[in-house]
Amino acid sequence: MTDEQPSPPRTVHLDGRQVRTLAHPLRMRLLGTLRADGPATATALAEKLRTNTGATSYHLRQLAEVGLVAEDPDRGTARQRWWRAAHDISNFEPTDFDDDPDARAAVRWIQADQARLLAEQAERWMAVEQDYSRAWRDAAGMSDVLLTLGPERLRALNDELWQVLERYREEAMPDERDARSVYVFLAAFPRPEEER
To answer: What DSSP designation does 8 have?
Structure first.
């Protein structure tokens, strides 16, 4: 038996063109689905996302043009194109786009879409949580805390939390009894109503 180490996640630091391309509802869903569920055809993605194949194909090509998705040559045939996410993780610093108003607007849209996804997934969980075991209901949850931090300590906190998430990702145990995919959202920002 070999101890295979998981490969590090493929990460891309998004540029302005990629951010502007990604700021679209179907493109975000396509990329997210490919990351979560693995390679698929445009037809399968259209069915899963309840859209039409033409729109799905078009938006996959747009994502491919900026390097966010790629054709999967090991699965493709002359009749069917399979697509895969080109990276496991996308990141950016909002200040990367201070000189690009279109990219700044795209970043705001992406962040708002993430907040919408958080609310949507939380509501979906709450609608079905009674169907899950006590162990799952006790393990899942949300909480909040109000801290007083400067920007340096807030950055350090976010970096440390990200390291914890990466450690759990690297130590993934798919054979663990009752293991499932779990959404983890990380958000930390100043209270806007508080005076600076």
So the answer is: P
